[in-house]
Amino acid sequence: MVERIVGLLKDIGSTHPPASDLLFRIILNTDASDADFYSRFSDTNSSIRQEAARALGHIGKKESMIIEQLLQVLSADNEEASAYAAQALGQLDKSQPRVIDALLVVLPRFDEQLRADAVLALGKLGKGHPLVRDALIKALVDPDWGSVRQHAADALGQLGEGQSDIIDALLQALSGSSWREKEGAKSALGKLGKGQPSLLDALLSTLSSPDLSTRWMAVGTLRDLEERRPDLVGTLLPLLSSDPSWLVRGGIAMALGVLDEKLSRSIDALLLALSDASSHVRICATHGLRDGRSEDRRVTDALLYTLSDSAWSVRGAAAYALATSQNEVKALGGHLEELLRQYEPIAYRELRDYNRAFDALREVAEKM
Length: 368
Known about the structure:
The protein is 68% helix and 0% strand. It is mainly α. The radius of gyration is 25 Å and the shape is elongated. It starts with a helix and ends with a helix.
């Protein structure tokens, strides 16, 4: 009920009460002890307050008075409300010096959500502001919270500035202590690092790290960058079978499908990966074979054979790869009826992520 009402309020282009008053009361979580209109919306549910913040940001694009009120909430002592104010300010579509300055001021405050939300808002609004850039690089090594480090990396990706010191800082974060900051660094490097050979070299060096999460993130970043350098494929190929982590091997299988054009060098290794002891790696191998768009008939044959894999998730992945690849419909030929019969009983019972494969197979059947 509350979410629906807040959603409607986002469409109101005016600060006329009770709309703006209601939204501010929601993010402030004002205690309405009397049985008035607002008491129905006093709620500690964070998703409701986030919706209210987004609504205020939407209205603030047209009403400067809302921005003034949000800045007051941001600078007040209520840390939780200040965080929601930062979220609201992050919805603005134009950068304003007073907003940037206010967000920079709250960064040292000792509250995880406030810092994280302020960092994200700065990433959206702070392009071209040297102080913002420096503040975000500093936040990459926040001493208290991984979420702040992750959002700092995400914010740098939003800024879109790929100077060498930013890339170096993100590479350090990729080897950081928390998965969250690694994920943020991976995402940002994938956006900022295209066309930077030195970054590719650094990522290749990271593949020898003893930390599996660092290796996995490095592989994922290489896949995101989509640079088809021969030495990248040459380095990844032996690791597809030798890396001790099934997570890393799976990431490599998916990366090869993107980095090796037509699977000219990696098709044999990916076909072999369909027999990996890890079902995760076998799933990723089906994705790599599909994404590689090879015209080698062995790909279709191997995926059809994989439909009998012992793991239902792998069978579903093979079905999805067959149904969405560039293979000719005729390649499925006489296998199609058996494929549909085998796949249908589990499609609706278990395979949430692969239901679209069943739908795609139906479409294939109709074309035959």
